[in-house]
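INFO batch 0412 | record 1 of 1 | parsing
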Amino acid sequence: MRNPSWLVALLLGAPLFAAQPSPEPARVPKSVRGTLQSVDQRQGGVVMKADDGKRLSWRFSAAVVAEVAKVAIGAPTIVIYRQTSANQKRVTAIAFPGTASTPTYVNLTGERVVLRSTAAAADGTCTAKATGTVSESTIPAGGRAEVLEGCWCCGASGGSCEPGSRSGAGIAYLEACF
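INFO prediction complete | emitting tokens
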């Protein structure tokens, strides 16, 4: 009598089914809007009061904090981040709407990055509904770029990303692009 394959696998300690790698979770772009409350250059921290009234603290690199320290307390602020896992957020940028006449991005990541941008959808959102030509700019470390389109993302040089953030006319300091 032949042994069923599952019995042989069980006796030998072999797995019954090969484990399938789980897909990498999508890095959903999110942002928090509010006002700048304080900057602690020694600790690398920025505190903002979100539009919903919550007080939020964020850590940034020394280069980003040095630039944020030049912004007036009470200025409109947007922190753009990616939810990388259920309990972890990774900041992409901090932006200050109204501080420049066009969307301006300053690369403080320490590496060359690519900035991709496209026009917002008819309803003003940056989603898959946003159509049009995607513009791409390479920004050297410490460099800056201006774009005309409203939706953007940044990634490692040679990489790709989907424009899903919107900060509008003003300056955004790039912390990490992925």
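INFO post-check: The chain has one domain: 24-174.
INFO record closed
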